[in-house]
C-alpha cells in the first residue's frame, strides 16, 4: 500500500541503541528502552508501497481492482476480492499475498504472516510474499529473520530497491548501523537517487552517531518538493542533535502541529545533553555516540 504499511506507525521499535522517534521501529529505531515521548519524528522507509505480485491473465483484472482498493485504503473491498480469488484458486500466490497485505495493513501481523508463508510455500521464487514475511518479522522484532529473508530476496532479484530498503531498516534496528549503511550505499549504486534508500541512509547515519553526514545526505533528498515527510523529519532530527533548534523547528512545522514540534524539540535537547555528558575521549570530533532510540512509529519498509 502506499501508506506506510510498517506503520513498518504506532510505536514498534524499542530495544537497541540508536535514535529516532518516528518509525515504529526503525520503518527507525533501534529498539532502545527509553520512555515514550509524543514525538513523531523518525522512521525507516520500508513499506510505503504494497507488496505486489505476479498473477495469471485470468485473474489480473480482479487483482488490479483489489490492489487499487488496497492502495486507496478500502481494506474491506480489497479483502473481499482477494478472498474470492483464493476461493476460486486456493493456490493463487497473488491472492494469498493480497490477503496477507490486507491483514498487514490493519496490524494483524501474525495472520498476515500465515498467508505470506502459504504463498511462499507455493512459489519459493516469488519475492512478493518473501518481502511480506520480512516485514512481519520486523514488526515482531525478529530482526535476524527479517535480515535473512531480505537477503534471500536480493539473491533472487539483485539490487531490488524495496528489499534493500527493508534490509537496511532491519540492520539498523538490530544495531548494525555500519552494515545498514553498506547495504544502502550498495543499493544506491544500482538505484541512484532513490529517495527512500537515500532517506534510510541519512537516518542510519544519524542513528549511528553521525548526524552531520546524515544531514548532508538528507538535504539532497529534501530539496525536492515531493520529498517524503519522513525525510524532512529525519533532517530535523539531525539538526536538533547538532544544536540547530531553529532549523529543526522550521522543518518540523511543515508537517506537524505546534505541540508535536515542541515535543520533538524537547526530545532533541534531552539527547543532545546526554551526548554532551559523555566523556570527551569517547567522542571523535566528526562523530557523536549513537543516541538511544525511542519507540518509533513503524516506518515503512519502503
Automatic annotation (TrEMBL):
Q: Which residues form the signal peptide?
A: none
Protein name from the UniProt record: TPR repeat-containing protein
| KW DNA repair (keyword) present | no
PANTHER family linked to this entry: LIPOPOLYSACCHARIDE ASSEMBLY PROTEIN B (PTHR45586:SF1), TPR REPEAT-CONTAINING PROTEIN PA4667 (PTHR45586)
Q: InterPro entries from the xrefs?
A: CellSynth/LPSAsmb/PSIAsmb, TPR-like_helical_dom_sf, TPR_rpt
The alphabetical list of record keywords is: Repeat, TPR repeat
Q: Which PROSITE patterns match?
A: TPR
User: Which lineage ranks, top first, belong to the organism behind this chain?
Assistant: Bacteria, Pseudomonadati, Pseudomonadota, Betaproteobacteria, Burkholderiales
Q: Pinpoint the residue ranges of every TPR repeat in the record.
A: 127-160
Q: Name one Pfam family in it.
A: TPR_16
Amino acid at each position: 500500500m502506499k501508506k506506510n504499511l510498517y506503520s513498518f506507525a504506532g510505536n514498534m521499535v524499542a530495544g537497541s541503541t540508536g535514535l529516532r522517534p518516528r518509525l515504529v521501529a526503525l520503518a527507525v529505531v533501534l529498539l532502545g528502552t527509553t520512555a515514550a515521548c509524543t514525538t513523531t519524528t523518525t522512521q525507516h522507509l520500508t513499506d510505503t508501497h504494497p507488496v505486489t505480485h505476479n498473477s495469471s491473465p485470468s485473474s489480473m483484472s480482479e487483482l488490479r481492482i483489489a490492489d487499487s482498493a488496497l492502495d486507496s485504503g478500502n481494506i474491506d473491498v480489497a479483502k473481499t476480492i482477494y478472498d474470492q480469488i483464493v476461493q476460486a484458486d486456493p493456490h493463487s500466490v497473488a491472492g494469498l499475498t493480497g490477503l496477507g497485505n490486507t491483514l498487514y495493513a490493519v496490524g494483524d501481523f501474525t495472520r498476515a504472516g500465515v498467508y505470506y508463508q502459504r504463498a511462499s510455500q507455493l512459489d519459493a521464487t516469488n519475492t512478493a510474499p518473501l518481502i511480506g514475511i520480512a516485514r512481519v518479522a520486523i514488526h515482531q522484532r525478529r530482526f535476524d529473520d527479517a535480515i535473512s529473508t531480505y537477503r534471500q530476496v536480493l539473491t533472487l532479484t539483485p539490487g531490488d530497491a524495496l528489499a534493500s530498503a527493508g534490509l537496511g531498516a532491519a540492520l539498523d534496528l538490530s544495531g548494525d548501523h555500519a552494515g545498514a549503511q553498506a547495504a544502502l550505499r550498495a543499493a544506491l549504486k544500482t538505484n541512484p537517487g532513490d529517495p527512500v534508500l537515500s532517506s534510510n541512509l541519512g537516518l542510519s547515519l544519524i542513528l549511528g552517531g553521525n548526524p552531520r553526514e546524515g544531514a548532508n545526505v538528507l538535504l539532497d533528498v529534501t530539496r525536492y518538493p515531493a520529498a517524503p515527510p519522513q525525510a524532512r523529519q529525519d533532517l530535523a532530527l539531525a539538526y536538533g542533535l547538532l544544536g540547530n533548534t531553529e532549523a529543526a523547528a522550521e522543518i518540523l512545522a511543515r508537517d506537524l502541529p505546534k505541540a508535536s514540534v515542541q515535543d520533538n524539540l524537547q526530545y532533541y535537547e534531552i539527547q543532545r545533553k546526554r551526548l554532551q555528558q559523555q566523556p570527551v575521549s569517547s567522542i571523535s570530533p566528526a562523530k557523536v555516540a549513537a543516541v538511544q532510540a525511542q519507540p518509533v512509529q513503524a516506518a515503512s519498509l519502503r
